[in-house]
Sequence to fold (164 residues):
Amino acid sequence: MKGWWNSTPDEEILRFESGRRGPVFGLALLALAAYVLRDSLMEAIHCDDCTLQELVVWNIAPLLGSSILLYSSAYLLSTHALEIDSSLRVIRVSSELFGLRWRVYAHGFDEVIRVQRTADEDTRDSGVIVVKGNKISNKYVAEWILGDEQEIADAIGVPFVDRT
Fold:
């Protein structure tokens, strides 16, 4: 889902939001992570003669694997947004899962150097917001702003560079 809108007439916030990337695959990853965690917990409960060191060594891989699965499922089930707040002079990129913001990047307008479109091997074109040498938009944010780079640059007050 792609769209720009002002959130309220009083505020000057441009918000660009995506839909969920893969709810079916995200739910499958969540179920797999829950299964791995449950299995690991049941092993720890039923092992009476195991030492704490053995439990940690045997369960470190399942715990790391399930944390990766949980992060992946949270990313796929989240909605992601790019907000430009002209009144506070802040640009934010956030991820929200069931009403809970779990990842937010915020930068002031004075930190943003430029908005650019670059040639990308995967998508051929991608829009990127450059903050003092660092890119704050990943591949998906780049897809959201593709075609609207000039409008974003004008809202922030930085130049738009087309490097395709």
Observations:
- Helices lie at 23-46, 52-77, 139-145, 149-156.
